[in-house]
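Protein data:
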Amino acid sequence: MKMREGKSQFNKHRTKIEVVLTILVVVSIVRQFLLGNYHNMFLGFLTLILFMVPQLIDKKLGVSIPVGLETIILVFIFSAEILGEINAFYVKIPIWDSILHTTNGFLMAAIGFALIDIFNRSDKFSIKMSPYFVAFVAFCFSMTVGVLWEFFEFSMDWFFGLDMQKDWIVPAISSVKLNPTGANIPVHVDIQSIVVNGQPWNLGGYLDIGIVDTMKDLMVNFAGAVVFSIIGIIYLKHRGKGKLATSLIPKVRENEKTEGTND
């Protein structure tokens, strides 16, 4: 009885969060319409569609997404599209992109972990993997998704002239190309100013196009994936125990398993 009451309380909280975020998105869509920013309006409608993905996965695939994970997913989508893109948090808050990429690494590790764990517990598969191997595969899954996303960012910048891979100011460089002797020894150079098309720009350094941003994104993705992998190992070693892991790891609903067995 207490378990049911606890779940109903969780569901109430989840519903409240969904309602609040949905209202905020609708307000943002109306505001962008009044401002004539139709591109941002599209991002708002896209956000509403993405909000439905967890529920579709739950209904169509029979995978129960815990309240904690679903809340993180909804907040992540809202933070990336509404706050990040429409309200320019990526520009206003320098660490905003790093926070989201860290969260993405965490979420993708959770999804990869759930997929492998579901297969690992299925009677259809004869191979059973250790908790460490499951966590390792989840980590690799997260990093692969992170790399593919960086490919996407690069493609958008290269072919469509966007700036998804944000520029960084690098105050100094070390390069063998600048060694006057031609030796394979890097020469350290402090950069005071640069010239673009004959016009000096006092940026305090060299304008790096994407490399630093990409590596930073992958590093924080790595951190998020490692954190969840550790949580996953603890979860598998103490199956069914621990509120944190239980609230973050998707599961196949028991009734779905039973129906599959009867068939």
In short: Residues 256-263 have pLDDT under 50 and may be disordered. The radius of gyration is 23 Å. The longest strand covers residues 167-170.
